Amino acid sequence: MDEEQAQGEHVISDHRGRKYITLDEPDGVVVLAKKEDAFLLIRQYRPAVDAVVVQLPGGGVEPGETLVQAARRELAEETGYTCGDLSYLGTMLPASWRSNDSTHIFFTDNLNVQQEQQLEDHENIQVYVLPITECIHKVKNNTFSDGELSFALFQAHLHGYLPIYG
Prior knowledge:
This is ADP-ribose pyrophosphatase. Residues 22-152 form the Nudix hydrolase domain. Keywords: Hydrolase. Its cofactor is Mg(2+). Belongs to the Nudix hydrolase family. By secondary structure, the chain is of the alpha+beta class. The protein has a single domain (25-158), classed as Nucleoside Triphosphate Pyrophosphohydrolase (Alpha-Beta Complex). The chain is built from 3 helices and 10 strands. Strands 4, 5, 6, 7, 8, 9 and 10 form a 7-stranded mixed beta sheet that branches. Strands 1-2-3 form a 3-stranded antiparallel beta sheet, with no helix packed on it. The protein is globular and about 50 Å long. The termini are far apart. The mean pLDDT is 88.
């Protein structure tokens, strides 16, 4: 296999020319945050798909952080909300056929007072509060196609945090 390396990632080509990406720090976190009868989502432009995507607040885990610390930090930075209890819903591999990325999913329904977002220079994120039934409808009809959001909804239901919606 051939390998290229750039800032913590390795691009590997196998004998057929297929490319795989392995990251030195593959862990990320997202939070499915329930605010009364709605979810706290974010909208942001994603250059890889050249589209504005509705997704869960989250991001990378910094060196020395636990997954819970990273989830709390990312929620506060991207939305301005802090939270009480966080429940771990599981891990998903967003593109295991292409990358070693792994996303750890958390749930909270214990949101605290909103403050200012603390976005990084490259981020342009809009907070989007959407009723639960509308969110599920948009996932069901493929209006929202973010894998982490879909996985989080499914896991939240399986863990008893969300009833069945039609």
